[in-house]
Amino acid sequence: MTTRTMDTAQELAAFLRSRRERLDPGRMGLPSHRRARRTPGLRREEVAELAGVSTDYVVRLEQGRGLRPSAEVLGALARALCLDASERDYLFDLAERRRPGTTGGPAASAAPSLARLVGDLSPLPAMLLDHRYDILAWNPEMARLLPGFEAAPPSRLNAMRLCLLHPAMRDFYADREQVLRDGIAHLRAAWAAHPEDRELSDLIAEFVTQDEDFARSWTEREVSVNGRGRKLLRHPVAGAITVDFEVLLPLQDPGLRLLIYRAADEESRASLDRLCAR
Fold first, then answer.
1. Which residues form the HTH cro/C1-type domain (predicted)?
2. Top-level CATH class of 8-94?
3. Which CATH number fits domain 112-277: 2.40.180.10, 3.80.10.10, 3.20.20.10, 3.30.450.180?
4. Which regions of the chain are under pLDDT 50?
5. This prediction's pTM
């Protein structure tokens, strides 16, 4: 990603190559008598055979010649490459074959009712994010929980930017590497779903330039959208806090994400209560 907007043909080519190269021929049930392999993964002709298309077609796709595969061909390639649901969505987005119900532009701001809902979720820390991880609404508990949150100007309130570039957040996540990988995988999925979003492309370019960990993970082309899980936080005042998180999608604004934290144990609940009462 070196331009302001995505080159979908080249990204589709790179994604197909990366997913072909990760597959183990033995686990795919392919004959063992074929000639010795000099590169990892499946050969193009093997993918073509599994997908029911010509080898030349797979070659042209991997060379980024601007082909527009049909939904049927994309489905066959997804099965041949053993893509999971998030990777399949990414493949369809790159080929500009959107699934039903996923069209429509992203919301530019939080609807008043959603902003009120974020506030009403107190005392649970909550915030509303768009597909870029820009923070559109938050409650006081979330502002107190995230180090450096209140010092950041509103125009720069982005969850990934805080995590990557704000010094106070550097040691906040106990498993920072996994948190970054999950966030980057989400941004890559959003990047494919909104290929003309120049703000998103500029944001990714900023992160690639300024953070080595982001730049390295971005090249791995991991794609996923994680809707729930657990995080261990290391707050500079409250100490260790373990939270369970849940991500909810508003029906009328599916491009937005409502993130809610809940204490995972009584000790963490007590720590959150003390922090939010300050």
1. 34-88
2. mainly alpha
3. 3.30.450.180
4. 1-4, 100-104
5. 0.75
